[in-house]
Design a protein that fits this description.
The protein is an alpha/beta fold. Helices cover about 40% and strands about 20% of the residues. It has one domain: 3-Layer(aba) Sandwich (Rossmann fold). α5 crosses α8. GO terms for molecular function: hydrolase activity.
């Protein structure tokens, strides 16, 4: 893994494949890291320049000076790509929060996006796991985020996967390492507050963002896991309604991260769409 200085912040990224090949950019979810995309690098980098990023304030990246919003995260990713010299249109793939950031990137700079792949993405319904809604309780959210340790981290990881064997010691250690970063709790709470509260994911930003993205339609793939305990699989129907031009797929016996639980199937599903679009 490598780091870049981006607008005064140290941003962590991973890159593989031929730098001259069409670029694919992979974005993780809230409180997560680029490790969530590790299995896709070797599956895609034979044909693409594959770049995964710890979004500002998450993973092992430093935060941006401004309060964390979807716009700040999107701008941070664009600035990171600029520092990497990648100014061509990109194939964007985002999981969970990363899906909402990807849509924000498309809405703000449609000329820089070739395709959009949304993986169990935020933005299509108010329902979300109670653990995230509890972060809105004053004082409680910060306490919860400061108590991610060897007792609580495995429980959090088990919420993500239908296949419990994926809750490995390495993933638990990484979750703890991320939670110990100095700005982790503050950044997590800032973006969580923008996205919603005790009643779930707020409707206003969702409606605005989906409208802006629909006005800049790109070839789109929307996928979900049918056993997602973070963002329920019923959101896929809403996503299909919002983006009728999109392809979609429901992975069976799969949780919140199909790119990890079904890596080969996931890559095989998205590769034809990427190949059709010249960059």
């Amino acid at each position: 893994m490598r780091y870049l200085e981006v607008r005064g912040s140290r941003i962590r990224f991973h890159e593989s494949g031929d730098p001259a090949a069409p670029p694919v950019v992979l974005l993780h979810g809230i409180g997560r890291s680029l490790e969530d995309w590790a299995l896709q690098h070797p599956l895609l980098d034979g044909e693409y320049r594959v770049i995964s990023v710890d979004m500002p304030g998450f993973g092992l990246s430093q935060r941006m000076p401004l309060p964390t919003t979807l716009g700040v995260l999107a701008d941070g990713v664009w600035a990171t790509l600029d520092e990497l010299g990648e100014t061509r249109p990109v194939h964007l793939m985002g999981n969970s929060l990363g899906g909402a950031v990807s849509m924000t990137m498309l809405a703000g700079a449609p000329e820089r996006v070739s395709t959009l792949t949304l993986v169990n993405s935020a933005g299509f319904g108010k329902e979300v796991t109670v653990a995230l809604r509890m972060l809105a309780v004053p004082g409680l959210g910060r306490q919860m985020l400061r108590r991610i340790d060897r007792l609580t981290a495995p429980r959090m990881e088990r919420m993500i996967f239908a296949d419990r064997t994926l809750v490995t010691a390495e993933r638990i250690e990484m979750a703890i390492r991320i939670a110990r970063q100095p700005d982790f709790a503050a950044v997590y709470l800032e973006i969580a507050k923008e996205l919603g509260g005790l009643r779930g994911v707020a409707a206003a930003w969702r409606a605005d963002l989906l409208s802006r993205v629909a006005g800049n339609a790109r070839p789109t793939m929307i996928v979900w896991g049918d056993r997602d305990r973070i963002l329920p699989s019923t959101h896929l129907a809403a996503a299909r309604t919002a983006f009728p031009h999109a392809q979609s797929h429901m992975f069976a016996k799969t949780g919140h991260m199909p790119q990890i639980e079904r890596p080969e199937e996931f890559a095989g599903l998205v590769r034809p769409m990427l190949a059709k679009v010249a960059v």
